[in-house]
């Protein structure tokens, strides 16, 4: 599909939305109003659950906070609903920020359990706070007015609701294609990679969490002024799981999935309410929830992907444009060749009684390739983790570019200028090669939430894309930048990781067993690339146990065995060292 | 608050906590063996109470219908998957287990009903009727996705709970029940009035936890269950079938939840949807135990009971808010104490 066709589809969709009130019955418009209102929540959940990977059962509570806030302002205090909107957003986002700050460091299912906990707590509050109508609810909520024009009819508020939905969709779509959005899309599939790119996973999580709460607040505000009456029931945990159901059935990896999911659930609900009484008289209320829960369970068992991602496989994909040349991103000040860049002094790491790294000292100088080798179990990987901040030293010092880094987090070390690759390749298989490499530019770019959503960062983004393209060409994968990373063979995936690391313009590149599992010709290709990098004076620390691979490539070698440094020297000296031979081959009899 | 009131609240809280212990221990058992956080155990407890109440009044409990529906669904699911994988010859055995056995239990209750059985018999009947529910649900709902992530299983578990609430209303109706007290005796302990029911709850909780301990420590089945909990693949290599371990775990867990339902029924009025809060509060206790340690879980569940008791004295409207808000600091503490290895969720 070309861009022009895509734009046509979008314009037709917006026109259809605008024409709906003239073509459809008032009842259908009411349904569409609810679809719009629930879409806002569901789109937020798509971002939070499908993209960032945080499963929240508590969104209904956020909607409730906003709905009660605006009801308090407008119905009880007689002020404008627009003032209610301000309070709704401020209150909801503040509560979300506080909850997020407290809970977003929780791991895996602990995090989801905490959403059940606060979802329940807040849900119970609504009926029990004095002055909010108790369990009978609050009525007489005024309609929203624009100037003196009150949006009291369904079709009037319809335009407001869908204007919100379309705006949210556009802004979020912009955001997801910006620097911060790429970081969000990387969150699923493990934190290690994200942190190694210099991204603070915690802050990205918090941003997504507050955005989702903000959308819930918009939805709650619209809901209160559409239905003109609120009670605690729609904000209980059952509703929370319904929103999750909308997001997942629609397709939690796509923003449109939120809208489709909301529409499917609303229309299904309507149909169930029409037809269940025919099948089972008098029992329809109970059956409705059973039917919905069963549909959801069946869906989770059989078709977790969701409607939109399933359908989009059959649709022509929009053709992305190759990045065009752009002014380069700012470069770091590389240290003068020969200067000491990284200094490890007496680094020690214990696991219980086992000393994995025992008082190891060495240094890496700018412009050289240092090999860190040793047989299996020598402590190379632990040493690697100490350098990159994945593990903390028990004692000892690590100084990088004049700065002590042994207490820094992985993300901070990455920002200081160390870029790494992984022994077990960590890429995002469903993202394109270009996007994977673009992740590497995170520390060199600045665009945030607002500039990303409003596309104010296009110049920086163009530079970043050009840089990523340049790195892809540097490793020889520039022909198909929009291929998915998961489709590459292992050898090219390793190269892609190196391109991603290079895109960060690092002071030091650390490679964790890059040759492991590669075939012979793949190894040759890798060796060629590293030799090229050496000519360009990129400083590299290479952790490897393949002696042959290392020998021809590096300037100096540090050998580790049983957690200690065995010796250090140029490749020829190491090759002839009796201790190294003994460590690798066993002692001579 | 005087010390008298504090003592009464404490005893009340311990009794409530003892009920949570039974459900919580079952939850931990299921989680360790199958990785499912089985929220519906609270519903199982509530259903047991409703079943017992129906038996008392001589009505056929709604559980019979529920069990039969689930048995048919589970049999269909099992036959379908056996047929598809070319193991059709196992179908008779599967039918005997998933269809015949629950039907026999239902039939037995139906036949025993006109004889107006005594209370102990009624209790046994109620437990018998309730026990098949969760293994059948396991077969229908969780077995097809046994390898899914903990989070997905949690979503399914939540959805299942709401399905059960709906079914509960359908089969049991909206009326609340309160069963006859198990004992009328009362004691004076250190100047504080303790009724027999409270004592019975605590004793039953201790006895059943003790039995579970013996089951795990001294029977081969119990050890097989523990092995599955530690490592499913390893257990499979030793000839233990994780699916079968799961079924046994669900049976044992249901028994515990059923007993808690029987103990709570004379004290509180139970509705078809009372299980949610019961189950979730027990779950809070289980989380205090890290979803792993049984003694930790027991202590956690009693703690929740006592906290709830004192919270309801301070502000009965906000007691649930207090109990569930407490979960957040507990989760943060657990997350720090047991830093778990990143579960690599591939996209």
Describe the structure.
The complex is a heterodimer of chains A (589) and B (347). Chain A has 589 residues and is an alpha/beta fold. Chain A is built from 23 helices and twelve strands. The model of chain A has no long low-confidence stretch (mean pLDDT 90). Chain B has 347 residues and is mainly α. Chain B is 73% helix and 2% strand. Chain B has 14 helices and two strands, in the order H-H-H-H-H-H-H-E-E-H-H-H-H-H-H-H. Chain B has helices at residues 3-34, 41-56, 62-84, 91-112, 119-130, 133-142, 150-172, 196-218, 220-230, 232-237, 242-264, 275-288, 294-314, 319-337, and strands spanning 186-189, 192-195. Chain B has a two-stranded antiparallel ribbon. In chain B, strand 1 and strand 2 (192-195) form a beta hairpin. The radius of gyration of chain B is 20 Å and the shape is globular. The model of chain B is unreliable at 342-347 (pLDDT under 50). Chain A: The chain crosses the membrane at residues 7-29, 35-55, 82-103, 110-129, 157-176, 197-223, 243-268, 275-300. Chain A: One of its GO terms (molecular function) is ATP binding. Chain A: It is found in: Cell membrane. Chain A: This is Branched-chain amino acid transport system permease protein.
Quick take:
With 589 residues, chain A is α/β, with parallel strands linked by helices. Chain A has helices at 3-23, 26-51, 59-76, 81-103, 108-128, 154-176, 179-186, 191-196, 201-227, 237-251, 255-279, 284-302, 307-312, 380-388, 410-416, 433-438, 449-453, 458-474, 490-503, 520-535, 547-551, 571-575, 578-585; strands spanning 145-146, 149-150, 340-351, 354-365, 369-373, 395-400, 403-404, 418-420, 508-512, 540-544, 556-561, 564-569.
